[in-house]
Amino acid sequence: MSILDVLVGVGMTTSWPKVDHAGPPRSLPVLLDGCVVGSLSSGEADKVVAHLRRLKVSAASVIPDDLEVGYVPLSLGGTYPGLYLFTSPSRFIRPVRNISIPSSDGKDIEHIGPFEQVFMEIKCPDGGNGGRSTTFPATHEELMPTAMLSVVANLTPWSDHNQSPRNMYQCQMAKQTMAFSLQALHSRADQKLYHLQTPQTPIVRTKTYTKYGLDDYPSGTNAIVAVLAYTGYDMEDAMILNKSAVERGMCRGQIYQTETIDLCEGKSNQGQRIFKREHSDKAISSFVDSDGLPYVGQVIHGNEPYCSTINQVTNSKRVYNHKGSEMAIVDYVAVDTKNKQHLQK
Questions:
Q1: Which residues are CB-contacts of 40 (< 8 A; sequence separation ≥ 6)?
Q2: N or C, which terminus of the chain has less Cβ within 10 Å?
Q3: Distance CA 111, CA 193 (A)
């Protein structure tokens, strides 16, 4: 027994080649993984969808529990109506509670996809009906009140005590913060990367913070905030930082920037230039090693050398200087070992 057998058993008319079938509004097409498999009467569509959802949560059914039942009802100027079923792998699904199925042992959990949830009536388990009319009663319920929020929104503690737009602002600011975004810095070659030097775990947190293990990737530093109103420093949209706290490293970050030198650029230079420093060149010996590469941990100021190459044909040398006025520190040097004789990148 298959999904097609179940659909035929509940009233679907099988699609035959070169046979015309009635379309909306009298009947709706039924598609399984993008292929038209039949048609269904418009008046029976709601009953068929409810029957498929009951079979989804049943353990002894041939219907897979991750089947996406995308029922698009008839509408004026909306999405083309029909029953769209999806069983392909690697689809986004999430659990909700099917309250139309009486169950006391937790067998009412149904996994739904992003396509079908747009046309479903899902209520929040906060005691209210969300302004829903009696014409369209809720058939499903979220597992928890915070399930309607995104992952970033769930990281905000006491969001129900904030003004609603402020919660949305925080969702954007949480993604813009200079955080501890990764652990494998020595294996990355990002053009520019911001990294918080002294991250801290938050004093208060939500369940989502612990669930996703965000202590391994902290996104900020705890701070004591003093509000001095009326006679104090009551500047709008500004703040005054404690000088000693800043000197101790509060909110201090680093910018990791990757400088790539490819000696194979250009057909005329291929195989001619190599990384090397002349032994007689004492002016840059304190900045560049004999292999032409900088010392790890070397402090480089503006317009100071950090790399040297020599042309094997013309015996001319080229020194690469640090651009910009800010100080830089060489954290690590990575080489491309495709060329076994001489390094080219």
A1: 7, 11, 12, 13, 27, 28, 29, 30, 48, 83
A2: N
A3: 38
Asked if 12 and 48 count as a contact pair (C-beta separation under 8 A), the reply is: yes
Look at residue 280 in the predicted model and tell me its pLDDT.
Answer: 80
Query: Phi and psi (nearest 5°) for 257?
Result: -125, 135
Q: How many CB atoms lie within 10 A of CB 280?
A: 7
**Rounded Cα–Cα distance for residues 201 and 217 (Å):** 9
Do 343 and 274 touch, CB atoms closer than 8 A? Answer: yes
Q: Is 134 exposed, middle or buried (0-12, 13-18, 19+ CB in 10 A)?
A: exposed
pLDDT tens digits, one per residue of 40-70:
988 899 999 999 998 888 877 788 889 999 9
Q: Tell me, what amino acid is at 63? A: I
Determine the average pLDDT of the residues in 258-277. Answer: 75
Does the domain spanning 3-148 belong to CATH 3.90.1070.20? yes
Rounded to the nearest 5 degrees, what angle is found at the Cα of 96, between the Cα atoms of 92 and 97? 155
Q: Among 97, 79, 92, 96, which Cα is nearest to 31's?
A: 79
Domains 3-148 and 259-345 share a fold: no
User: What residues does each domain of the chain span?
Assistant: 3-148, 153-248, 259-345
pLDDT of residue 18: 60
- Cα 330 from Cα 333, distance rounded (Å): 8
Q: Can the peptide bond before residue 145 be classed as cis, meaning omega within 30 degrees of 0? A: no
User: What is the fold, at CATH topology level, of the domain defined by 259-345?
Assistant: OB fold (Dihydrolipoamide Acetyltransferase, E2P) (2.40.50)
Is the torsion defined by CA of 178, 182, 186, 191 positive or negative? negative
In this predicted model, what pLDDT tens digit does every residue of 196-216 receive, in sequence order? 888 889 999 999 999 999 999
Its pTM stands at: 0.68
Going by C-alpha positions, the residue among 98, 113, 115 that lies closest to residue 66 is: 113
Kind of pairing between the strands at 35-41 and 27-32: antiparallel
Residue 182 has, within 13 A of its CA and on its CB side, a CA count of 10
Tokens of 7: 């659909």
